[in-house]
């Protein structure tokens, strides 16, 4: 049983203690009240209001189209369903890259208008000024290195990052810089497991992996992938814990049949 299951509120400090105690951190995405309430009640440690909403909620090909206003809306919905989990809200593309003043203004809007507990930004040395300014204002920041989906057009591929020595060394340096800038945790996405282990051991802040092997301090998955709602996305790192696509399709087809054959509603379901 988890050491921290009885903690009434998971905070950034709780995550730090979990790393120190060797307890893994569980994290999942959510975008609305109903699923956030389910995940919180189930005992998840961290809920990420991900800009993956652009893909799984809005149907876009990338995360880039999602606006700050849309992220705020999704975060507001999630916050209403949560009483225990730490809530991290993604800063969407364009809300922090241009300069640190815009980054701070965006982060303040998210914190004031959603009630979320922290924000997440993608990138290393390139956005260090923005991270420092947001942290200095008292807003907790989670970093994100490796495959950073907001930079997909720069990468040109969703392949594993930092396989070459130069990129791996930059990632290690960026991780140390993000910790020094005040990040409370770091997502490592789609990098070699050995590098993720090296980064995790070199930092005193926790690391959360997605496609980064077993040696990070925690794991995160997108809910639609983990629950098998989305069937098109099947990377090696994904474990599907349910096959909801087939179950939901079957249930809806049965409902259609019952309606068309007058099997629903029956007398017991009528007034």
Topology:
Layout: H1 12-21, E1 25-29, H2 33-42, E2 46-49, H3 53-56, H4 68-80, E3 86-90, H5 100-114, E4 118-120, H6 128-136, E5 141-146, H7 152-155, H8 165-181, E6 185-189, H9 193-202, E7 207-210, E8 218-221, H10 223-226, H11 244-260
What's the shape?
A: globular
Taking pLDDT < 50 over at least 5 consecutive residues as the criterion, the unreliable ranges are none
- The tally of domains stands at 2
Largest sheet: 8 strands, parallel, barrel
Strand order of the largest sheet: 1-2-3-4-5-6-7-8
How many strands in all?
8
Strand content: 5-15%
Supply the CATH superfamily name of the largest domain: Phosphoenolpyruvate-binding domains
Write down the CATH topology of the largest domain.
TIM Barrel
Structure overview:
The chain has about 270 residues and is an alpha/beta fold. It folds into two domains: about 10-240, Phosphoenolpyruvate-binding domains (TIM Barrel); about 245-270. The protein is built from eleven helices and eight strands. An eight-stranded parallel beta barrel has the order 1-2-3-4-5-6-7-8, surrounded by seven helices. Helix 4 runs parallel beside helix 5, helix 5 crosses helix 6 and helix 8 (about 165-180) packs parallel to helix 9 (about 195-200). The protein is globular and about 65 Å long. The model has no long low-confidence stretch (mean pLDDT about 95).
Give a quick set of tags describing it:
271 residues; 11 helices; alpha/beta
Offer a quick outline of the entry.
With 271 residues, the protein is of the alpha/beta class.
């Amino acid at each position: 049983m988890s050491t921290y299951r009885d903690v009434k509120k998971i905070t950034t400090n709780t995550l730090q203690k979990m790393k120190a105690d060797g307890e893994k951190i569980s994290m999942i995405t959510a975008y609305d009240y109903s699923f956030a309430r389910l995940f919180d009640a189930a005992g998840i440690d961290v809920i990420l209001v991900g800009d993956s909403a652009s893909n799984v909620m809005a149907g876009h090909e990338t995360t880039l189209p999602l606006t700050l206003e849309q992220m705020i809306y999704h975060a507001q919905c999630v916050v209403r369903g949560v009483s225990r989990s730490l809530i991290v809200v993604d800063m969407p593309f364009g809300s922090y890259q241009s300069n640190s003043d815009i980054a701070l203004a965006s982060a303040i809007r998210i914190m004031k208008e959603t009630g979320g507990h922290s924000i997440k930004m993608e990138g290393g040395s390139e956005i260090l000024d923005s991270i420092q300014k947001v942290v200095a204002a008292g807003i907790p920041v989670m970093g994100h290195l490796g495959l950073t989906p907001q930079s997909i057009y720069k990468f040109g591929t969703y392949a594993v990052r930092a396989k070459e020595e130069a990129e791996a060394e930059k990632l290690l340096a960026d991780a140390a810089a993000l910790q020094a800038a005040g990040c409370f945790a770091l997502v490592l996405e789609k990098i070699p497991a050995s590098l993720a282990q090296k980064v995790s051991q070199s930092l005193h802040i926790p690391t959360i992996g997605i496609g980064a092997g077993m040696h990070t301090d925690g794991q995160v998955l997108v809910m639609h992938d983990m629950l098998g709602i989305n069937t098109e996305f099947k990377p090696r790192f994904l474990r599907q814990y349910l096959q909801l696509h087939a179950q939901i399709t079957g249930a809806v087809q049965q409902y259609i049949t019952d309606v068309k054959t007058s099997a629903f509603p029956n007398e017991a379901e009528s007034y």
